[in-house]
Amino acid sequence: MTGFWENEFIQTAAYFSVVVLCIIVSLAIFELVTKYRNWDEIKNGNMAVAMATGGKIFGMANIFHYSISNHDTLLEMMAWGMFGFLLLLTAYFIFEFLTPKFKIDEEIEKDNRAVGLISMIISIGLSFVIGGGIG
Fold first, then answer.
1. In this predicted structure, what is the pLDDT of residue 2?
2. 38-63: per-residue pLDDT in tens?
3. Rounded to whole angstroms, how far apart are CA atoms 92 and 86?
């Protein structure tokens, strides 16, 4: 059975499956902390929500890219990836805190694309910083 897990196709499929599941869980958690419903807003054409959500998905995938590249076991990769998610979630709350003149969630829900774009760039940019620290 050891040879089975050493097969690169099996490892890639395992990493892929775990990362997709982790991204789904991460998005569900983001859904709980935002005031709007991501997929309802996206279905209704809200570009600000689509940009913010896309940034979160890209950011999580990028963090897991670094985690896969720097860790030998699936469990280590998952732990570092979820730690990276917690840092990204923390960044979301810091972003909200640093903008006292308006509420990020309310602006994104109102389809304020400027706020959605900044939210996307923050998620993507910080994912590189977080990924760089995964070692």
1. 63
2. 999 999 999 999 999 999 999 999 99
3. 10
* Helix/strand/coil for 35: coil
Q: How far is CA 83 from CA 23, 58, 63, in A?
A: 13, 16, 9
> Which tokens sit at 15?
């990493």
Q: In whole angstroms, what separates CA 84 from the centre of its chain?
A: 9
As given in the structure block, the two tokens for residue 76 are 């280590």
Least Cα distance to 60 among 86, 99, 38 occurs for 86
Tokens representing 96 are 């909200």
- 43-59 as b/e: b if 16+ CB within 10 A: eeebbbbbbbbbbbbeb
Q: 103: how many CB neighbours lie within 10 A of its CB?
A: 14
> Structure tokens of 129?
């910083």
What is the CB-side half-sphere exposure of residue 49 using CA atoms within 13 A?
A: 21
CA 46/CA 8 separation, integer angstroms = 40
Question: What is the pTM assigned to this prediction?
Answer: 0.89
Residue 40: its H or E element = helix 38-43
Q: In terms of Cα–Cα distance, which of 34, 19, 35 is closest to 78? A: 19
